[in-house]
Write a structure and sequence with these properties.
Blueprint (H helix, E strand, L loop, with lengths): L1 E3 L6 H6 L6 E4 L12 E6 L2 E6 L2 E2 L14 E2 L5 H13 L5 H8 L10 H16 L5 E3 L12 H4 L8 H4 L7 H8 L3 H12 L1
Parallel strand pairs: 1-2, 2-7
Antiparallel strand pairs: 3-4, 5-6
């Protein structure tokens, strides 16, 4: 299975890790804007909120750059903004208080490459979910496995703003973790089984 590198990937991305197959992260594809590679979606008081990591375009050639070479832009205060958005959205979730210290350091240190930042966050989420996937980076270009169609296979769980926004399927894994804690693994297993 070959998955794209992703910033705090959606629940459907993590459901794919339940296959127990080795998973390759595609690092030789050309970076695609407006995708999970540098954008995650969280629940906020006003509905879905997209958090986008700004990209340094100076090493693009002909508008293209390999995922493994994508650098994070240093020209904005995105880390502070993203952490503030996470804090504001999940402060009242059941597990934010216990898990915030696991995530805050990612928003306080400098990261040069997007793929390294994404991978470190994914491994932290795996640790908190108590899953040990066999993750490696692709040795060459292999293309990505299509993701689970999460809209149809979503397993509902508690969300902070559910009464206001309704249940929002396939948000970032961080939504599931902050709302469900250790129970998250059951949602992921059910999401994967619903698809297969």
């Amino acid at each position: 299975m070959i998955l794209p590198s992703a910033y705090l990937p959606p629940v459907s991305w993590f459901a794919q890790l339940m296959t127990h197959e080795p998973v390759l992260i595609e690092q030789y594809e050309n970076f695609t804007k407006q995708t999970i590679r540098n954008r995650c979606t969280i629940d906020s008081p006003n509905g879905k909120l997209h958090l986008t990591i700004p990209i340094d375009h100076s090493n693009f050639s002909g508008g293209k750059c390999l995922m493994k070479d994508i650098r994070i832009s240093t020209h904005s205060d995105w880390q502070h903004q993203h952490w503030y958005a996470l804090e504001t959205s999940y402060f009242n979730s059941p597990f934010f208080e216990y898990l915030q210290d696991d995530f805050r350091p990612f928003y306080e240190q400098h990261w040069e490459f997007l793929i390294d930042f994404n991978e470190a966050l994914i491994l932290k989420c795996c640790e908190l979910l108590d899953i040990q996937p066999n993750l490696k980076r692709s040795p060459n270009y292999m293309g990505c496995t299509p993701l689970v169609n999460a809209g149809r296979t979503a397993v509902p769980y508690y969300q902070v703003f559910q009464q206001r926004n309704g249940f929002l399927p396939d948000l970032s894994i961080i939504d599931l973790i902050f709302n469900m804690g250790k129970e998250s693994i059951f949602i992921l297993k059910n999401t994967y089984q619903n698809h297969h």
